[in-house]
């Protein structure tokens, strides 16, 4: 499927939803387009040779500032992909009420082929190119980690930025996903996976939706298959397992395994670390090929790797009742059509994996306020709770001990507040999308309903900015 355009697929989904809105065609056209595309080539000395590195930064929308979006290091990075991911970021932020516009960046390299020192040179040079063109800054455009990047790369970016913009008081807010010691926020690492869990848990708690799918309400006992065991896939599987679901299948690029009685995610990860592969895990059966996991018997399938893994060819063989898109764009529009006809519920990427950007927003706010979450109220809450509990114990003559007491007295740490904010965000967004879908039965699927929510919010922003006289 070499002619597949990811940006084209995003536009297709947008057009499908636009007909359920009442915006002027001109406004719809403006929302759809990528506002600013920066494609660059720069030389970096790698070993004895000079390599010309190809990189991108796309700002899809400016209806709010700053723009926000990850930086991907992969050989597959191209303009089409970066534009598509930037557009999805715009819609994602709108749906979860994070006041950013969408952007995305990428460098076309295989990070495994470079030493940390070489990767640092590439990352710092990329950052300085962005600074030169004013494509980065706490009020302009705030990158974050994505596929192939992490806290280390974000630390290099913030260091380059603050050294080239000395004295900028909010400089730490130029990028998110940083190490906690460099202004990062606790809870960022597991944020996307936890957001996927919160979003799906909310869907699983809706009686009407579950009755239609012929499934009991709740997470417990659900059979889950996860494709991709990176940061997002691992944390999604972990939270589902902790809440009583059974992880029956796991898939990675080197192979896939299953066990209908459930796989222990921690043990699988340990096995993979030691053996370099998922395969031959004791207590798991190997699939003939890794894509077979997508077609196995289960309640929830969670593609958490790359885009375009379920398409017109394999969608008819998928047996899951619910597909939770933890990755960006794992389904093609053809797959969407097939699932809608088959009554399979697709919970769309553009809001389901918004946990990362939600917690990035909390990190950005922390950088602008220069104070750690919980610092002001933790002790006050604990003192107050101790006082209340003491009074209740005196009145009843009963004592509360152990874990229960700890739980009641506990004042919120940063990670508690971050997770609570994320939970609230995902629950609200899920309900909002489901409401729109319920009110307009013509809307064919949840993705289209999510796009309708996004288009309405972005359209309102543009209209209120007075951009359109």
What's this entry about, in short?
Keywords: NAD, Nucleotide-binding, Oxidoreductase. The chain is α/β, with parallel strands linked by helices and 469 residues long.
CATH architecture verdict of the domain at 36-182: 3-Layer(aba) Sandwich
Integer-rounded radius of gyration = 23 Å
User: So what's the CATH class of the domain at 36-182?
Assistant: Alpha Beta
Structural class: alpha/beta
Helix/strand order, N-terminal first = HHEEEHEHEHHHEHEEHEEEHEHHHHHH
Number of strands: 12
For the sheet with most strands, the description reads:
7 strands, mixed
Task: Give the strand line-up of the largest sheet.
Answer: 9-8-7-6-10-11-12
SSE diagram, text form:
Blueprint: H1 6-18, H2 25-32, E1 36-46, E2 49-59, E3 67-73, H3 79-95, E4 101-107, H4 116-132, E5 141-145, H5 151-164, H6 191-204, H7 207-213, E6 223-227, H8 231-242, E7 246-252, E8 255-258, H9 265-275, E9 285-286, E10 300-303, E11 322-324, H10 333-342, E12 345-347, H11 349-352, H12 355-369, H13 378-396, H14 402-409, H15 414-439, H16 446-465
Parallel strand pairs: 3-4, 3-5, 6-7, 6-10, 10-11, 11-12
Antiparallel strand pairs: 1-2, 2-4, 7-8, 8-9
Helix pairs in contact: 1-3, 1-16, 3-16, 4-5, 6-8, 6-12, 6-15, 12-15, 15-16
What features would you describe in this structure?
There is one protein chain. By secondary structure, this protein is α/β, with parallel strands linked by helices. The chain has a domain at 36-182: Rossmann fold (3-Layer(aba) Sandwich). The chain contains 16 helices and 12 strands. Helix 12 (355-369) packs across helix 15 (414-439). The longest helix has 26 residues, at 414-439. The model has no long low-confidence stretch (mean pLDDT 92).
């Amino acid at each position: 499927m070499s002619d597949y355009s990811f940006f084209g697929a995003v536009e297709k989904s947008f057009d499908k939803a636009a007909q359920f809105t009442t915006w002027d065609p001109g406004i719809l056209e403006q929302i759809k387009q990528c506002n600013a595309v920066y494609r660059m080539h720069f030389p970096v000395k790698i070993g004895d040779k000079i390599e010309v590195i190809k990189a991108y930064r796309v700002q899809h929308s400016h209806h709010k500032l700053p723009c926000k979006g990850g930086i991907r290091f992969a050989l597959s990075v191209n303009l089409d992909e970066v534009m598509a991911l930037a557009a999805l970021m715009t819609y994602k932020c709108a749906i979860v009420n994070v006041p950013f516009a969408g952007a995305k960046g990428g460098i076309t390299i295989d990070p495994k082929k470079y030493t940390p020192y070489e990767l640092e040179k590439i990352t710092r040079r990329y950052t300085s190119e962005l600074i030169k063109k004013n494509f980065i800054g706490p009020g302009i455009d705030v990158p974050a980690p994505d596929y192939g990047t992490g806290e280390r790369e974000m630390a290099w970016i913030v260091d380059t930025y603050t050294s080239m913009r000395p004295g900028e008081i909010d400089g730490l807010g130029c990028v998110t996903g940083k190490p906690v010691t460099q202004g990062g926020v606790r809870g960022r690492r597991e944020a996307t996976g936890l957001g996927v869990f919160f979003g799906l848990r909310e869907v699983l708690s809706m009686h009407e939706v579950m009755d239609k799918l012929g499934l009991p309400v709740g997470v417990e006992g659900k059979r889950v298959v996860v494709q991709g065991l990176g940061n997002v896939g691992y944390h999604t599987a972990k939270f589902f397992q902790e809440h009583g679901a059974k992880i029956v299948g796991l898939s990675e690029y080197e192979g896939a395994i299953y066990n209908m009685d459930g796989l222990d995610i921690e043990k699988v990860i340990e096995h993979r670390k030691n053996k370099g592969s998922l395969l031959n895990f004791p207590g798991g059966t190997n699939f003939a090929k890794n894509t077979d996991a997508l077609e196995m018997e289960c309640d929830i399938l969670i593609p958490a790797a790359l885009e375009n893994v379920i398409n017109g060819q394999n969608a008819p063989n998928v047996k899951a009742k619910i597909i939770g898109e933890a990755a960006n764009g794992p389904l093609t529009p053809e797959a969407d059509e097939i699932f809608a006809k088959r009554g399979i519920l697709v919970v769309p990427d553009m809001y389901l994996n918004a946990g990362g950007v939600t917690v990035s927003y909390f990190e950005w706010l922390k950088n602008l306020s220069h104070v750690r979450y919980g610092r002001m109220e933790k002790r006050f809450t604990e003192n107050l709770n101790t006082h209340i509990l003491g009074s209740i114990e005196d009145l009843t003559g009963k004592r509360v001990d152990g874990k229960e007491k700890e739980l009641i007295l506990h004042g919120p740490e940063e990670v508690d507040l971050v997770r609570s904010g994320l939970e609230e965000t995902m629950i609200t967004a899920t309900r909002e999308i489901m409401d729109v879908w319920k009110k307009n039965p013509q809307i064919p699927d949840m993705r289209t309903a999510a796009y309708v929510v996004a288009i309405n919010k972005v359209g309102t922003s543009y209209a209120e900015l007075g951009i359109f006289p």
